[in-house]
Amino acid sequence: MIMVIFSGRLFSGWVIAIIVFFIEKNFMLREKVLYFVYGLRKSFQNCIWLALVLLSWSLMFSPDVQKNNEIFKKVFRALIAVLVGATIWLIKTVLVKILASSFHVATFFDRMKESVFHHYILDSLSGPARGEIDQTVPAKRKIFGPSRSMPTNLKDGEKVPGGIGGSRKIDIERLRKLSRQSTASAWSVRRLVNYVMYSGLSTISRTVDNFETSEITSEWEARVTAQRVFKHVAKPDAKYILEEDLLRFLRREDIRTILPFFDGAVETGQIKKSAFRNWVVQAYIERRALAHSLNDTKTAVEQLHKLASALVSVLIAVVIVLVMGLATSKVILVITSQLLLVGFMFQNTCKTIFESVVFVFVMHPFDVGDRCKIDGVMMIVEEMNILTTVFLKIDMEKVYYPNSVLSTKPISNYYRSPDMLDYVDFMINSSTSSEKINLLKKDIQTFIENKPKHWAPKHALLVKEISTLNKLDMSLLVTHTQNHQNFLERNLRRTELILELKKIFETLGIKYQLLPQQVHLTHVSTANGGPSTQF
């Protein structure tokens, strides 16, 4: 039995290693089972080990011997109790893993695919041309180079959590294929999560003899990187990147996909330096926000795991007491009374925790970085936890909201909204001719059609009412080509629209004047040698 106890864990470790090896070989990136085996192998190993010990005990000592020996009977019950406890712990871990996997798939998979694809494009454009790859770097470049923002335990060739085969290097071509997947397996989601969380947005820059990896860690570095990559891709002294320039680095199908990312590139086939810079900066901002979201989600899952572990520990203790036969009527009465007392004392706390868990993992109305409006106040989500959420106001004031309170409030989420409407109210004279109003409509339509990246073609110029017989209350309804997540960009577009309206009013001579006012002359005085009038 001593040999079984000490060698059984070693044997169960071998069994798990063999099972994981064959599953990884046959189901890589195709089945959810791989993700769960990697997360549950320790729990599986414990169950196999304890089952071997219990089986050996049953084979070595017959039931008759155990019935006649009270010590053997208690040891047998203890082994059963420990095995049942390990099985319950395994079930708990499986349920938490299922929750985390499904949560990542439902919430972040599309954003992770887009972020990985942007990284693939930037990495390809900053590296050698496709014809130079065989001579300068291996055909399958690895995107994990020395990173200043990665944890120290992930540097110098150590493992990335969830990495295949323990390698910290991820093939950029494999990630490109992942970014094009329409359906998400749990393992591919795990790979994307680890990739986004443990790597920054990196580029490959040329040194004297080779290529080295550099990582973008700020918006300023993103702008500098954009200028360097633009010069690397475009012809010398060129102001635009042409499609033939992109063909040296990318596949043709990738070029068709990325052109809509750049302002005006679809219409002209040219990528301006400013449009390229804005794309790199936006890719970095989105990557940073997504990494924060995944990190906070991981923290929330870990907190939920700890909470579930505490509850399961109590359940296992109760099961052990029952299996060991220690649960006499007095013990059951004491335990029941204590549980009722604890439940009564922490009734509100338990209710708050339950509501918070439902809010974070079931409702989940926002992620880190989303712009929301709560109680009429616009704020950005800074941090998410199980019990509280931290927001930032426009003036950078931090606001802490209990999640149990947020679950009862209506929440507007700008990030998840579609392209949003905007309006500009103004007044003109009611005497303005119909011809001028028609010209106003045509000029507004021309302006909107000349800004297809800012405004959708569909708009409306409405007359709301005629006020005091001398003014028309009008409103211009327009649709942005984005939502109001980027509030500064929304205000800049709105400002440009209002200034254009002012210019149109001045050109067409459209004005607003007050009604003529009657003046009553009541007294005329010639005191002090001069006329004086009173009204």
TrEMBL record:
The chain crosses the membrane at residues 6-23, 44-63, 75-95, 307-327. Keywords: Membrane, Transmembrane, Transmembrane helix, Transport. The keyword Thylakoid does not apply. It is a multi-pass membrane protein. Residues 358-415 form the Mechanosensitive ion channel MscS domain. GO terms for molecular function: mechanosensitive monoatomic ion channel activity. It is found in: Membrane. The keyword Disulfide bond does not apply. GO terms for biological process: detection of mechanical stimulus; monoatomic anion transport. One of its GO terms (cellular component) is plasma membrane. Belongs to the MscS (TC 1.A.23) family. This is Mechanosensitive ion channel MscS domain-containing protein. It comes from Papaver somniferum. The lineage of its organism: Eukaryota, Viridiplantae, Streptophyta, Embryophyta, Tracheophyta.
